[in-house]
Amino acid sequence: MNIAFIGFGKVASTLVQLVNSPDITFLTSHEKRSKDTMDLIKESEVKDCPTLKEAVENADIVISANSPSNAVEAALEYGKYCKGIFLDLNNISPKTALKINDLTENFVDGAIIGKIDSKNPILYLSGKNADKLLFLNDFLSVKVISDNVGDASNLKLLRSSYTKTLSVLLIESYRLAESLNLEDEFFDILKLTEGDDFKEKSLSRINNTLKSTKRKSEELEEILDCYNAQDLEMVGAALKKLRQFEH
Amino acid sequence: MNIAFIGFGKVASTLVQLVNSPDITFLTSHEKRSKDTMDLIKESEVKDCPTLKEAVENADIVISANSPSNAVEAALEYGKYCKGIFLDLNNISPKTALKINDLTENFVDGAIIGKIDSKNPILYLSGKNADKLLFLNDFLSVKVISDNVGDASNLKLLRSSYTKTLSVLLIESYRLAESLNLEDEFFDILKLTEGDDFKEKSLSRINNTLKSTKRKSEELEEILDCYNAQDLEMVGAALKKLRQFEH
């Protein structure tokens, strides 16, 4: 079986390492790629085809793992050459997933939960052909949600809306506690209901959020753009608050 | 040692059961009490004095466990007869704690975290005389926060602002998940980062909040009233959202 990658970054190179089988050959191409990507291709167990078109044409599965902004373009340019399954792992919105579904045959909507190079990444899939990718369970956790393209992307956004808004709530509560000189007690008292790792987890969430307020804001904007923003007052407030921290 | 109760409801009767020592006598009075309270007094190991004034005058520790709205009045009426420590357990705001501090000698600000009749209630105390109540550690968990009257009440409000706002965020996220037919997957996916009991805990928080939206709204209002509401956008959004559920 041949698996081709459109885009060859961290997701692709990690999948090549994880999905280690004599029956599987990975394909990609250095065509129009940066020096860093070419280095990564050379270091990985992947066949470097002269063109990406050739890699895609010869693949049973095509994995688009580029960037959200290039996802539609990649599907538009290479989807037509794909005879097998077209799996998108670009962190796209449900709307974009439906768009790509129109541009490709046998589309599968995919979302990686957790970092791909973390201990236990989980690959959530949805779409009519998602079941055909269940063999990947031999190499990493794969969960098929439903036949509906968009559900994997929806689930990723749902999770994101909860965790990112929670992080902003943590920032607000922590700052109030700090202003009262009660930050240690705040963590102690909440440990009782939120678990022993509450302090460690909360500080890590607060720091991660404050480190990249612009990106987090954009992600919250995408959520409000994707769903009925009127019903998402908490996400709206989190976005408003986060913007105050942007420079 | 004599401990007198102003107000004799669940908190007082549970404390009488917990603080079980031959060296301690509990006092209260049926004066101006309802039939239910009089029944509770009869069932409890407490000495029923002819008047509350007499109970308070003879006490080393007076515990005011009435209701937030009666806390100041109780202190005003009986504080002057109290020769020992005056401990308030009325779930009052930090502002009210400072007010009562002016009305009584040897005031201790107290907050019970968790329900008093739960498995492990914790009594948080603050104020110059709080240390003198550490002997209660023989009977239940007692933590002294600081010398500052108001800190125990602040900590209770801080906790409340986080947990109640979180509950509203859970309602929002859950409803979005429901609208996408992904509520089971929402819980499954968040279990990975939020702990195995995430679903059970979240549903219980959602139900508790929706069962008493009016009371929860009032508690959020109190928080906004007590601190700089402008800095508490998340609490503000939670209050706004909760009010939509009120009938």
TrEMBL record, chains A, B:
Residues 203-230 form a coiled coil. Keywords: Coiled coil. Residues 3-75 form the Pyrroline-5-carboxylate reductase catalytic N-terminal domain. Gene3D superfamilies: N-(1-d-carboxylethyl)-l-norvaline Dehydrogenase, domain 2, NAD(P)-binding Rossmann-like Domain. It holds the Pfam family F420_oxidored. This is 3-hydroxyisobutyrate dehydrogenase.
